[in-house]
Amino acid sequence: DAPIEGVLEMYTDVTDAQQNSEHQQRFLLLMVAAVLSILYVIFVIIIKRAERLLSKQSEQQRLIEQNLEHLSTHDALTNLPNRMLMLDRIKQSLASVERRGIKLAVISLDIDNFKSINDSLGHHIGDEVLQAVAKRLTDCLRKGDSAARIGSNQFVISLPDIHASAVIAKIVQKLHSVISSPLEI
What we know:
By secondary structure, the chain is mainly alpha-helical. About 65% of the residues lie in helices and about 10% in strands. The protein is built from five helices and three strands. Helix 3 (about 115-120) packs across helix 4 and helix 4 (about 125-140) runs antiparallel to helix 5 (about 165-180). The protein is rod-shaped.
């Protein structure tokens, strides 16, 4: 209710404070951008490494599956096809023989007195004999022929694409010559 006696105005220059505030905002914005950029680079590095690890694991898994597939169809000692794979190959050859009108020969090979080799010289020598016989068989077969170990000392040889019986006789003679030559163990 009293009369106004005077007005006092005070001016404060806020330009510096406003500029300082804008500078702090820009600095804060740059810091946030820098931190986000660093996090982005870190995430990219993590993702790339994870991709490499997953790719490596996938390759290892593929190799393990291939190895298991090979072990399921091949003899562990001689690395020749086993009975199951040989039967499959013979079935396929029989189907081809019927379509093309050619012959298929299947030879059974048994190592004489193999038990006496194992008994007198030991199983490790018997294993070496089997491996040597397997190598000799595979070395003298034609392309497309197959040899398999189907028992302890039993082998089967599949000879597809036979056009004449004389060819079988030649192959058997060659196999006999190769197998009957002495082994150095």
